[in-house]
Amino acid sequence: MPPAQDGRDRSPTLGTALRPLRDCARDGADEVLSHLPDLGDRELQSAVDAYLDQVADLLREVDASASEVADRLDLATPSKAAPEPTARPTASAGGRPRASRETAR
After folding, report:
1. Residue 55 pLDDT > 90, yes or no?
2. Computed over its alpha carbons, how large is the radius of gyration of the chain?
3. What are the residue ranges of helices labelled H in the chain?
4. d(CA 102, CA 75)
5. 16-38 burial, b for 16+ CB within 10 Å, e for fewer?
6. In the beta sheet, which residues pair with residue 97?
7. Partner of 56 for a Cys bridge, out of 29, 69, 81, 83, CB 3.0 to 4.6 A?
8. What is the Cα 42 distance to its own chain's centre?
9. pLDDT higher than 70, residue 61
10. How sure is the predictor about 10, in pLDDT bands with cuts at 50, 70 and 90?
11. In degrees rounded to 5, what are phi and psi of residue 27?
12. DSSP output for 31-59
């Protein structure tokens, strides 16, 4: 049986949902560059280094693109206005306005 709906929208906005992708891509780019292997063969080393640089660049681009899309979506999403506070009554329970201390003297 599905859970009862309480009227609140629990689904995150798409901009919010992109945050883990941005974080993962940023962390992945840093991690790829921190694990450069030393192969010993100059040509092979150059090829592996170039490949890892391209992978890091790709992950940085995914991060930048996801950030841009998330920012655009957050700007396009109308913000939910906070509910207006209820007005406090100025009259006492009897229906007449309360007298302040200064006017009661």
Report:
1. yes
2. 29
3. 14-17, 19-34, 42-76, 101-104
4. 51
5. eebeebbeebbebbeebeeeeee
6. 91
7. 29
8. 44
9. yes
10. low
11. -65, -40
12. HHHH-----S-HHHHHHHHHHHHHHHHHH
State the Cα–Cα distance between residues 23 and 16, nearest whole angstrom. 12
Q: What are phi and psi of 38, to 5 degrees?
A: -105, 110
The pLDDT value given to residue 7: 58
Instruction: State the first-to-last Cα distance of the chain, in angstroms, to the nearest integer.
Output: 65
Residue 73's nearest CA partner among 32, 19, 25 is 19
CA proximity to 63, closest of 30, 103, 101:
30
Rounded Cα distance between 8 and 89, Å, is 29
Residue 11 is classified by DSSP as S
